[in-house]
Structure formats: structure tokens, C-alpha cells
Amino acid sequence: MHYPVDVFIGKIRDYDGSRPSAIAKVQMDGELELTELGLLGDEQAEKKIHGGPDRALCQFPREHYEDLIREFPEQAALFCAPAFGENLSTKGMTEHNVFIGDIYRWGETLIQVTQPRSPCFKLNFHFAISDMASQMQRSGKVGWLYRVIAPGKVSTDDPLALVSRLSDVSVYDAAAIAWHMPFDDDQYHRLLSVAGLSVSWSRTMQKRRLSGRIEDNSRRLWGK
């Protein structure tokens, strides 16, 4: 399968009442350079939780905007790509049919799915919906992140094409294991066994196995 893709990059901006963010992105056209840290010219405000080799690109399914418009009609005008700060926007790819470790060819590059996107409190501010991040996490409609395993030139006319599938753990499954289940050592071991899982998620799952407990996500979801 080949999936046409819209491409977006953004610069860091200041926001009254919230921290700086590069969530506001603009659509690109033509040829771009994809490095191991993402698209040249794309920025991330807080490198500890955004960006880096395992989070070089963010993709969000366009289908989810239709659901959000139905759920939040008063904010309908906001719900179109790239409102969630995604670099890549597609139809036909969702958390249910994209798997951790999947390798896609994009132009002359290769990119690999590393983890679901972990929604953070900045989304609450961005959409003026107090629990947006929490709602996204509960639904599993969060998108996913990539590492770049072969950098190079890409064009906004180049589709995404799956070239290797390395696991049976979908992005939705990974989100469910991390966020929707009570403590389950077997499922954490299953996720840790997946080729391509990000270092961050590998560390979190291993910490759970060692400590016997699930970490507190309230600061990420609520900024507190």
C-alpha cells in the first residue's frame, strides 16, 4: 500500500499562559531534507519530551479530525491538520493498522515506527479543552512517532510505502498496554520484545517490571 502524505514543519512560538511550543506548523511543498533528527527546519521547544532520534517525526491520522468535530462542534474550525503538531498527515493509516517497528519508505529515506505519541497538557491549552490530553490518551487516538533509519531527500509528492513489518503489536496495542491496563508484567515483556520500540518506552516498561507499579502521568497530562 502507498499512502499520500501532507507534510508540515513548525517553529517555536511563545504562548501567553503556557510554555513555548512548535505545535503550530505550516504545510510544505516540494523537496525537503530528512535528517536523523527530523525534517530540516522543524523545531521542538522542550527536547526532553519532544524530538530526538526516536521521535524525529510525528504522524496523526486525518480520520480522527472527523471524530473530534462531532465531539467538539464549538471547536470544529480548529480540527484540521496539522492541529496536533503532526509532521505527517494521512488517510488510511491508523493506530490499528500501523505497528511498532514498521519500516516505511518515504522518498529516498526509511523511517521506523517507535511508539505512540504521548499526549501532553499543552494540547489542553491549544484547544481550550481542559482535559484534551487525557481524552486522547483514553481513546488511543494519539498518532505515533518515527525514527529515521536512512536519512535523505523527500518530496511532498512521495507517498509512504510499508517495506517491513517486524511485530504484531499495533500502535493501539502499545497504547493500551501502557495506559489502559492495570499492571501486567506479561504485556510489558511483550512490548519490550518488539524490535524498534523507542528507548524511552523501553525504559518505562522495564522500570514498571522492576518496581511493580505504574508511574504517575498526571504532570504530563495536566501540567501539574
TrEMBL record:
Domain MOSC per the UniProt entry, residue ranges: 26-163
Source domain of life: Bacteria
Cited Gene3D superfamilies: PK beta-barrel domain-like
InterPro entries to which the protein is assigned, alphabetical: Benzoxazolinone_Detox_Enz, MoCF_Sase_C, Pyrv_Knase-like_insert_dom_sf, Tri_helical_YiiM-like
SUPFAM superfamilies per record: PK beta-barrel domain-like
Pfam family, one: MOSC
MF terms in GO: catalytic activity; molybdenum ion binding; pyridoxal phosphate binding
NCBIfam families: PRK11536.1
PANTHER family in the cross-refs: PROTEIN YIIM
The name this protein goes by in its record: MOSC domain-containing protein
Species this chain originates from: Kluyvera georgiana ATCC 51603
